[in-house]
Amino acid sequence: MSESVNADPAELAKFSELAHRWWDPDSEFRPLHQINPLRLDWINQLSPLEGQRVLDVGCGGGILSDSMARKGADVLGIDLATKALRVARLHALEAQTTRIQYREISAEALADEVPASFDTVTCMEMLEHVPDPQSVVSACARLVKPGGWVFFSTINRNPKAFALAIVGAEYLLKMLPRGTHEYAKFIQPSELAAACRHAGLDVLHTRGMQYNPVTGRYWLSGDTSVNYLFATRRPVA
Hints:
Layout: H1 9-17, H2 30-46, E1 53-57, H3 63-70, E2 74-79, H4 82-95, E3 100-104, H5 107-113, E4 118-124, H6 133-143, E5 144-155, H7 159-172, H8 189-198, E6 202-212, E7 217-221, E8 227-233
Parallel strand pairs: 1-2, 1-4, 2-3, 4-5
Antiparallel strand pairs: 5-8, 6-7, 6-8
Helix pairs in contact: 2-3, 5-6, 6-8
Keywords: Methyltransferase, S-adenosyl-L-methionine, Transferase, Ubiquinone biosynthesis
EC number: 2.1.1.222, 2.1.1.64
Pfam family, one: Methyltransf_23
């Protein structure tokens, strides 16, 4: 892999090994299936998806991409994990999701190719897996049209996030495979806000995502201490 590509080969290999399980709602990807309706509804409330051209950066097996296409958007999902993209394409065929395409390309390369081409850009649960998050944020800002929305979600970096997202989710509850996350790669909201400002994006809304292990329920709240989402917008020139 070229050194210029903003990707960690170990991270790509990790998700490729699990690729065949992306669409099994009882697999390691169960949390993604469970939180997807929350993410989708929040995005759709702020930036109604029907009729939009939407980009999903780091789409993996296509869980969010597919659901946005079913809301009436024309969706392009991009990723650098070849096996996950194969699974995404196969699912789109089987589910007959027609308003969706997938490409194996980085956000940076696509931004060079088709800048300011999308009404909405999503980059969910991806920034904590790349060597240079700022580069991805900047690419997303270049890809969205002026006035368009860019949505991010990631994990805060603090002792509580370490306890819940790694010790709890990976080791105690076994909700995720061990090694899914590295604490040092977690991103504090202040850091992501600075990255957005540097990229020319206005941070308009922030939400936290919480989980109750007893009920198995997820919900959005004002608590950004562990998982959180940003809604940003590229100003109209």
